[in-house]
Specification:
heterodimer; A: 73 residues; 4 helices; B: 959 residues; alpha/beta
Chain lengths: 73, 959
Amino acid sequence: MASDKLIRMATQMADFFRNQPGIDPAEAVGGHINQFWSYAMRRDFLALIHADADADPIVRTAAGFVRLPQQAD
Amino acid sequence: MKDFIIPDRDMGTPASKSDVMVTLNVDGRQVTVPAGTSVMRAAAEAGIAVPKLCATDHLEAFGSCRLCVVQIDGMRGTPASCTTPVAEGMVVHTQTDEVAQIRRGVMELYISDHPLDCLTCAANGDCELQDMAGAVGLREVRYDAPKNHFAQRTATGPNPEYRPKDQSNPYFTFDPAKCIVCSRCVRACEDVQGTFALTIEGRGFDSRVSAGMGSDSFLSSDCVSCGACVQVCPTATLVENKVIEIGTPEHIVKTTCAYCGVGCSFDAHMRGEEVVRMVPSKGGKANHGHSCVKGRFAWGYATHRERILRPMVREKITDPWREVDWDEALDFAATRLRRAQDDHGKNAIGVITSSRCTNEETYLVQKLARAVFGNNNTDTCARVCHSPTGYGLGQAFGTSAGTHDFDSVEDTDLALVIGANPTDGHPVFASRLRKRMRQGAGLIVIDPRRIDLLETPHMGMGMHLPLRPGTNVAVLTSLAHVIVTEGLYDEDFIRSRCDWDEFRTYMDFAADPRHSPDEVEKLSCVPAGLIRQAARAYAAAPRASIYYGLGVTEHSQGSTTVMAIANLAMMTGNIGEPGTGVNPLRGQNNVQGSCDMGSFPHEFPGYRHVGDQATRELYERIWGVPLSDEPGLRIPNMFDAALAGNFRGLYCQGEDIVQSDPDTQHVTSALKAMDIVIVQDLFLNETSNYAHVLLPGSSFLEKDGTFTNAERRINMVRRCMTPKNGHADWEITQMLANRMGAGWTYTHPSEIMEEIALTTPSFAGVSFDLLDRVGSVQWPCNEAAPLGTPVMHLDGFVRGKGRFLHTEYVATEERSGPRFPLLLTTGRILSQYNVGAQTRRTENLAWHAEDVLEIHPSDAENRGVRQGDWVRVASRSGETTLRAHITDRVAPGVVYTTFHHPTNQVNVITTDNSDWATNCPEFKVTAVQVSPSNGPTDWQRDYRSHSDLARRIMQTAAE
């Protein structure tokens, strides 16, 4: 998956959730990603964040909420 | 004869909606009807057909033909039964010597100016004039009229009163010689369709029906070819060309239109297995007997010579197609799909379900992915249209569907239409809305383009907020700003239906000066005063409704815009009552159904997340296989994964992604990167240029099933003819699945619906038996609502309390700048549908033979572009050429086009930007430059040559 695209999509989510009151935007971004992104997309996203890709702080923190269970492919 | 052909008896005048009942006596029979009913209709209720010519229950009574006169005890003279309302205790005589004599006299006059070529007339067997001549006992015509309208020549030379047939419309013929000037057609055009294209010119003997100005033909007039005039014409004056060609039909099959999301009910008038005409059903709950040019006339594609009827395969997409039998094609497809999984993993293949196919077919395709492929890689065209509606309304209300039925428009006092063009995209709904507007309802349009709805003659106010593409959220939040700061919100509603404290926080957000009309004017170019006026009007209307389309959803902030719409409806209490609501106008015929049926990669049928254990276990039990709890790939994700080499096979049913999805070059590169692309369609299309297997699909006339329209209405589709390709689409999916080991044994779509009802709570009560009995139902249809749910959120929201989300405007990354100074937005046109695969194969080309670029005169002037010039439109994604149409419908800085024709391939220039929540592509905003051009771009030439190459079919030895 084109790497910049995943970060860009996560940043768009951050732009929405950062404006919602009373929630942790990073957790909300993470939750949205868990709900809608495939395993491979989440895996690639986490790899990018761990490789220090340039990202919004919310997106960076959101990575901590992204679930990546063991999966036999 | 007439009644045999048309069992829906014409009651003469429309039904009255009064709940006060009146009892009267007609010819000795007691009959009780609602107050306001005409004597004619009351007689019809009692089983008595009063002779009539100008009256029909499609139209309000007119009282011009004088054939329906009756006698009523205590009333003087012979009143017309169509215009006389019933009264308590009235005693009516429909047949007396006096009225019989009057009727015979009237008929004699009519017939004296009518050609008596009944045996060879197109209306023979279906002519009300003929029926009435018989009914009144007309036995001779004593007049030898000195002047008539029907003879081409008189004894002294050409007849100056004669007018030749108007055959300009490709679907029907107007023969003035047969006209009795009953005005039914003119009234249908005004009252039902709302176009006002027809008029009666002249007076007395000179009265004639005329389309447009004197010099106009039907085609050149404002006529939109909806067919309402043809439907009500009592003679052969306006008649379908197919009836002229074939003759009268002999049986009727009730079915549902396969075009837009309005989901009109139709009676297919058949002779054998040949369709003679499609007539909108009077009992259709979405359309009440009305239609548009597409459903009424544009079904010839189903028997078009370009239909592919035999399966085809090829090794490489550069090879010519090879016609094979079903076994070989399905084995080829199944083997390659399994090989792709063996080589690249279980998740390397997926499906795209069709929003044009039936619920049952869609259900099977997503089941194929989940139960047979073993992944959740399923998506549908809703991804590129209304997925933000699903997410946005789900967040705000707790369920993703539209809140009201179409009938609700009859009660609305003001319609706020956002990013939709109903007269072109949802024409039958538009006619109903315009009818309400003529009764005084207000209209506010928020759209970059001045749409036709604004041009409609109507009684109420019409307001247009011509915003810059991409600023929906700013403008809608500004409307909320005005409502909040001026205290126009409905506190009682909010306190009872939402969370008051949450609303207070929302108020602080909306009241911030950055959302004020003056600030938003700078972003959106909508005058601040207009934003204030619109907000006040929406809040003040007793019952205000919102209707919106893809101009809302197809943006980077599509989901946020949907939430902003939900906020407006909640804060003004416009939810739950007839005449209010939030109503998405869905694009394709079954896009609602395809979403309901679990086409999305993250949810099972009935919108239940794949991570939900109880639901997954339910399906594991019914389907007998373990299921994945991981969300699958959405369409754009499939393309990205294909380019990365991880996604290798696609089964695409009834969807032309190459033409309909954004950034065409990205899509085609992705398809080229796959090992196996299976297209199931009626025709070779743009996507099949990149396919290895073509499975010929069946049309909606060839199968049983259900479609679900934009108001959640589940309508029956019924087979009118044997599938020309040999199989209905659900059978083909089952054959493919079984070759991959599924072991499915469905023998009829009703069995698939049984499985849907068994597993989906909102469909629990739905069955083909129920639909056969009651016609249609709106989901949820279950124990709590056995006949369905017309209006949702009546007393409370599905999620409990309605939720106010904060809708901050975030500018799209797609901005105009020095290189690309204009903003392109896209839309539809009445006569064409989606990618045009169907409508381009009909006579609808008479109205729209190519896509054109609408550009403002000042932008055109600056670029030296004249009307009709070829222009090059370039964006950062690509470029294409098309002809310019100069118009002030679009604002300076904005250009507009449609995407119905593959030669223009507008999606070459749209980008891969998408909605933040759902990846719905941002079709509606692309920064472009426009310049004069000599002809097609290199890309267009290359694409055309590939397309020509990819469509070759090898001649088989036998032929």
